[in-house]
């Protein structure tokens, strides 16, 4: 149905003002009647002309089919028309993605085409559909907007933020990983594999000297080691209710997936195999440890459509399921949000896994709790909120202390800090030789 354009509304407003003037000057009545009749005829003629002047307009959408969550992306629209036209365009993008730059104004000559674009914030993983493109075309005299809908279907898949891998790779190439917060600690322990013999360097410790080779060659020769390879890293991922909390634009679960993806890339580059097991949702998923080039893609496809549920996680059931699947010793990283009520299943699950595997519990701190503890107390309600937050924080620290006493290593950080914290923890355990 045609929509009045602002020009038509201004003309109608002018006609109404002229009608008010007739009250003071009755002599203007013929002019007012003539203006009304002429304006009505003009408006009707314009809308009829606009309907008759059907224009063949084509719109093509240009958007990547795979997108990283939590980023801003540009969506391009290519518009072409057989006849001269002007108006506005609105793209029906996925409702979970806020946009800027819509609607788009356009003006085309006959046979002309133009390319325009707008910005989308990719706020949710999974499959998402772009449906129609809505047009509002100006009538010949610009008195009406004539709506038209064009079916332009596109589907995109939104993955965890794989762009972080590119950043890591670039910084690693230039030995600038410290800009991300990744630390290089000195190796210690006996967890390294022999790599090769080489000439002695001044910074080599005496224990690295191979005296037999040195005597045979007549110069000092050192043994060079490398970190152990062919180890297994398995992520045990909580998909339950506690992972749905928000930290900025992303949920704790999204931050977790971004961290696991980055650590998987680092571990694969070190020659380790990477696998995944999920729990706390409908049908648990399992990806056996592998070290092929396509492992990161397999991980992406396994988790990109996962969303945190309202289920309460059963750690013991998840641990029992993983133990049955893993025939070889592995480094198991359980990612969850530690709570004080986890004694019933978390402790037994950690004990079960620790019998054969190296275990790390990655627990996500809730920034909102830190904000509550830092907020001033101005009234009784604020005091009660502070007391409840203190009690919760104390119970959480007590639970973490009990797990540490049982030999569980814990990484307790905010969701935003999880990627770098996990990488540093992986390096520390690997170079200490206790994976």
Brief characterization of the structure:
This protein is of the alpha/beta class and 435 residues long. It is built from 11 helices and 20 strands.
What does the model show?
By secondary structure, the chain is α/β, with parallel strands linked by helices. It has four domains: 3-52; 57-159, Sandwich (Immunoglobulin-like); 163-170 and 175-185 and 228-432, 3-Layer(aba) Sandwich (Rossmann fold); 192-227, no CATH class. It has helices spanning 6-24, 29-52, 163-173, 211-217, 252-269, 295-303, 315-325, 346-354, 367-374, 380-405, 418-432; strands at 3-4, 57-62, 66-68, 72-81, 85-91, 99-100, 104-108, 113-121, 126-138, 144-159, 192-199, 221-227, 232-238, 246-247, 250-251, 273-279, 286-290, 331-336, 358-364, 409-413. The strands form five sheets. Strands 1, 3, 5, 7, 9 and 10 form a six-stranded mixed β-sheet that branches. Strands 17-16-13-18-19-20 form a six-stranded mixed β-sheet, with helices on both faces. α8 links the parallel β18 (331-336) and β19 (358-364). α7 runs parallel beside α8 (346-354). The longest helix has 26 residues, at 380-405. The radius of gyration is 33 Å and the shape is elongated. The termini are far apart. The model is unreliable at 185-191 (pLDDT under 50).
């Amino acid at each position: 149905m045609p929509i009045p354009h602002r020009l038509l509304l201004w003309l109608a407003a002018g006609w109404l003002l002229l009608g008010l003037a007739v009250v003071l000057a009755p002599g203007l009545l013929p002019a007012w009647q003539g203006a009304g009749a002429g304006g009505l005829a003009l408006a009707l003629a314009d809308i009829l002309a606009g309907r008759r002047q059907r224009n063949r307009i084509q719109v093509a959408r240009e958007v990547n089919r795979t997108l990283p969550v939590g980023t801003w992306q540009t969506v391009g629209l290519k518009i072409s028309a057989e006849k001269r036209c002007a108006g506005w365009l609105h793209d029906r993008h996925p409702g979970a993605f806020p946009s800027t730059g819509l609607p788009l104004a356009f003006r085309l000559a006959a046979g002309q085409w133009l390319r325009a674009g707008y910005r989308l914030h990719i706020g949710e993983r999974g499959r998402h559909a772009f449906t129609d493109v809505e047009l509002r075309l100006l009538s010949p005299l610009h008195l009406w907007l004539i709506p038209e809908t064009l079916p332009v279907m596109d589907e995109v898949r939104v993955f965890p933020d794989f762009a972080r891998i590119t950043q890591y790779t670039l910084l690693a190439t230039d030995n600038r990983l410290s800009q991300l917060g990744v630390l290089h600690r000195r190796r210690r322990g006996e967890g390294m594999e022999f790599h090769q013999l080489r000439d002695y360097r001044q910074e080599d410790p005496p224990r690295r000297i191979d005296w037999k080779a040195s005597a045979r060659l007549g110069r000092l020769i050192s043994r060079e080691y490398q970190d152990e390879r062919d180890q297994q890293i398995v992520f045990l991922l909580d998909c339950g209710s506690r992972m749905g909390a928000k930290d900025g634009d992303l949920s704790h679960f999204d931050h977790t997936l971004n961290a696991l993806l980055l650590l998987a890339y680092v571990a694969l580059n070190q020659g380790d195999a990477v696998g995944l097991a999920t729990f706390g949702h409908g049908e648990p998923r399992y990806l056996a440890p592998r070290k092929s080039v396509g492992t990161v893609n397999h991980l992406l496809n396994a988790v990109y459509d996962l969303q945190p549920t309202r289920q309460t996680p059963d750690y013991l059931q998840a641990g029992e399921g993983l133990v049955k699947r893993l025939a070889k010793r592995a480094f198991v990283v359980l990612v969850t949000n530690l709570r004080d009520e986890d004694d019933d299943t978390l402790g037994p699950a950690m004990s079960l896994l620790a019998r054969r595997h190296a275990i790390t519990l990655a627990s996500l701190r809730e920034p909102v709790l830190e904000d509550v503890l830092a907020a001033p107390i101005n009234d009784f309600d604020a005091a009660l909120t502070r007391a409840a937050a203190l009690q919760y924080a104390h119970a959480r620290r007590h639970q973490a202390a009990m797990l540490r006493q049982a030999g569980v290593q814990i990484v307790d950080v905010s969701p935003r800090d999880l990627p770098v914290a996990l990488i540093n923890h992986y390096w520390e355990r690997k170079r200490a030789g206790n994976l």
